[in-house]
Amino acid sequence: MMDKQSKIFISGISGMVGSAIASKLLEMEYKNIVGSFNTRSPEFLFSDPRNQSKPPFPGPRFVKIDLTVQKEVDEFFDREKPDYVFMAGAKVGGIHANSTYPADFIYENLTIQGHIIHASHINRVKRLLFLGSSCIYPRLAPQPIKETDLLTGLLEPTNEPYAMAKIAGIKMCEAYNRQYGTRFIAVMPTNLYGKNDKFDLDNSHVLPALVRKFHDAKISGEMTVTVWGTGRPRREFMYIDDMAEACCFVMNLSNDLVDRCFVAYPDPCFINVGTGVDCTIAELAETIKKVVGFKGEIKYDTSQPDGMFQKRLDVSRLSGLGWKARVTLVQGVKKTYAWYLGQCGKPSDKKGPD
Questions:
Q1: Would you say residue 340 lies in a domain?
Q2: At a CB cut-off of 8 Å and minimum separation 6, what does 174 contact?
Q3: I need a labelling partner for 205 at 20 to 30 A (CA). Which of 16, 91, 274, 315 fits?
Q4: Model pTM?
Q5: Which of 57, 88, 190 is nearest to 136 (CA)?
Q6: Is the peptide bond before 144 cis (omega within 30 degrees of 0)?
Q7: Strands 270-273, 184-189: parallel, antiparallel or unpaired by DSSP?
Q8: Are strands 84-87 and 297-301 parallel, antiparallel or unpaired?
């Protein structure tokens, strides 16, 4: 287990995942936390009285680092010598963003991963957690998707560059474990959402984009909201606090369990993290419509892509270790919309890596 005095580094602490992990660690009374940010200072996340997860003691230290610059990453690790690393910094986005900026997605994510993983090895980090994505799996993978389904078929074209970068991160962790005896592990989350998400209409994921659409339509008095695609694809969604709890749970497993479940080659060095429950995009839209209080009609733009028809993770490995998600979709959407209203309905204009 991580000692309470261990120095913990969270890359991308200003992002949705990084800030949630930091809040969870503070709740667990880990006090020696340092987080990196690039374009958006995270201080408001841990000082805003509207942040209900704010702990009653001082928050993390923040360091501005461009994770795509190797010199900055190397100097940080040489100076700080973290014991544990949570890799939450990445360039992320939905179908539109992935389709519009494929080169940015593969270049920036490969670069960030390479710099942090190698620096963690050089500086003898005790354990590293790499945050992947369920898009690593083949577009026609059997449902629910098991960890062993990786690299068994073609990827979904709409986010292939991002998926390739995440697969490379998994394989890099695996390679360092085999060659150097490190304990670099990875979690593959399903679709995440919650407080501190991106709510802009062009580059965010489907759930926050729909929250924004329904909210704006309600405020402006519009009578229709348009949803991309047919509404038939099925997706699994997990509230961000559950994801943060799962990450901390995995990082606190005993060395014996980590070695047996993640490091022992050729078993996967990663684990699925999700709820194990999915819904159609149409069902999601109806849920958000009800929570927001929009009274109009939902229309579907079938000229836009659906992406994979279904993507539901098999979470039996994680549940077998003793952890399960707790927040239902309705509960999570209510929490997310309440947080969004607390921000005065203003979306993040941040487009780069956290």
A1: no
A2: 184, 265, 269
A3: 315
A4: 0.90
A5: 190
A6: yes
A7: parallel
A8: unpaired
| Tens-place pLDDT, residues 70-125 | 999 999 999 999 999 999 988 887 777 788 889 999 999 999 999 999 999 999 99
Instruction: Tell me whether residue 162 is one of the annotated catalytic residues.
Output: yes
Residue 285 lies in a domain: no
Is residue 166 included in any domain, yes or no?
Answer: yes
CB 292 within 8 A of CB 330: no
Q: Where are the alpha helices (DSSP H) in 181-221?
A: 206-220
Task: Specify whether the CB–CB gap between 153 and 139 falls below 8 A.
Answer: yes
The DSSP-derived string for 142-170 is -SSBPGGGTTSSPPPGGGHHHHHHHHHHH
* Domain contains 100: yes
For 333, the enclosing helix (H) or strand (E) is helix 329-342
Domains in the chain, number: 1
Q: What are 289's two structure tokens?
A: 């419509």
Half-sphere exposure of 21 toward its Cβ, with a 13 Å CA cutoff?
A: 31
Distance (Å, whole) CA 89 – CA 65:
11
Using alpha carbons, select from 331, 301, 322, 151 the residue that is nearest to residue 228.
301
Please state whether beta strands 8-11 and 310-311 pair in parallel, antiparallel, or not at all (unpaired): unpaired
SS3 5: coil
Structure tokens at 22: 């930091």
Alpha helices by DSSP H, listed for 28-127, are 70-80, 95-100, 102-122
List the catalytic residue out of 162, 176, 193, 239.
Answer: 162
DSSP assigned state of 46? G
pLDDT tens, position by position, 33-45: 999 998 766 766 6
Kindly report the CATH number assigned to the domain that includes residue 176: 3.40.50.720
Strands 278-280 and 234-239: antiparallel
